[in-house]
Amino acid sequence: MSNLPNCPSCSSTYTYEDGSLLVCPECAHEWSLEQEQAAEEQLVVKDANGNLLSDGDTVSVIKDLKVKGSSSVLKIGTKVKGIRLVEGDHNIDCKIPSFGAMKLKSEFVKKV
């Protein structure tokens, strides 16, 4: 038996191949295998509340954060607009108006 992925629309296990497309007989959803592989390769980053983050989102800092190499503190409630997701431990790359370019951990922000 082949190892075809479940339907992304209804999670049915009865998917089948029709040429270059994958088809779900229960909900009639069609998608390509390239779309399936691209979806698996996307970076998944969640905020402190478990909400999915994406490039361009606005987030708010949920805790006072010490800025490394500086005596200043990033205050709770600071809004950061236009974030960019990156690989690594500090998985949010952003520009904060009063601090400049900075990397943040997603566990210390929440989506606004």
UniProtKB/TrEMBL annotation:
Entry protein name: Alkylphosphonate utilization protein
InterPro entries, per database record: YjdM, YjdM_C, YjdM_N
Protein family membership: Belongs to the YjdM family.
Stretches assigned to the Protein YjdM N-terminal domain: 4-32
Domain spans labelled Protein YjdM C-terminal: 45-112
